[in-house]
Fold this protein.
Amino acid sequence: MTAEPVELPDRAPDLAAAPVAPVPGADPRTLDVKAKQAAYHDWESRTYEDKFAISYDERCITYASERFRKVVPDGAGFGSVLEIGAGTGFFVVNLALAGCLDGADLHATDISDGMLEVCASNGAAQGLDIATRQGDAEALPYDDASFDLVLGHAVFHHLPVPAMALAEAFRVLKPGGTLVIAGEPTELGDRLSWAVKRSTWRAFRTVTAVPGLTSLRKPGVRESGGSESDEVMAGLEHEVDLHTFRPRDVEKMARLAGYREVRVITEELTANWFGWAVRTIEGAVRPGLLGLPWALGAYHGYRALHRLDDDLLARIVPREAFYNLILHARKPYPA
Ligand SMILES: C[S@@+](CC[C@H](N)C(=O)[O-])C[C@H]1O[C@@H](n2cnc3c(N)ncnc32)[C@H](O)[C@@H]1O
């Protein structure tokens, strides 16, 4: 028996046109992976910046531009820039404020409309005109060869098939265009950070079990006035983180997608452990208890350890152990 030849379409189906918005009234726990991402991040969009201490001032401008300048030391003059999975605009807005994107047309896309609304208003508040469009990073709603620079920060680990997003970024980049993906967790770095989170959490619970100290604990979602649906949405947090990455796999994936000048660097070892310990306590303690001295200590402690990681530990510890991965790649000109 001869099998019928399979007819392949010219290109992937236009998944960008497929609805990702949750069906009203549907239980968010039963949604498919992308609708779940959209629902969770819509819900999180109004509190996201508080949770991750995002701001548009010296602290975050320095953080974003240092990540970018590690792989694009003196690049400039990007005519058009797209951030994928832009969220509330942390990366694109702070990079623009740092002067890394001077003169560029700024575009942002995300699967969550809620995130994009906050992104547009954050841009406007900083005098930036950011064109936003809801879309899936694995099926971008933009024409081929539209951008000189494609950015992403902390988005690839949310994507079911990251290689598809690399291919889509390649498609929408102009020849010679640059891709910078930052803020992705490495496999080993993530395992180490979980050990830190777990032990910090256990230590905090043990100390605050002492009578008189239990009031230091943050009340649960319901006790602090949240609805049943808030509780369900909060519970999705660990379902939307899909991947961690090995640096060499990301390099291979980028080369297979057609990129050249592929480079993956990693950073944050002790700084990351310190950061997760701080964030675990911030997430566990009664709101309003930790004041400015805590915030300043956390910031300066993180900066000091970051210097230790960059200046010393990066020379002796394998890159796999560092938490944060940054990918740089270029789309070649046609031969
Ligand atoms: C951890 S947040 C990062 C947001 C922002 N880039 C930042 O660094 O603050 C992850 C973002 O990825 C978005 N996202 C998840 N899946 C996506 C997909 N398939 N396509 C586009 N964006 C997606 C989420 O809606 C969310 O805004």
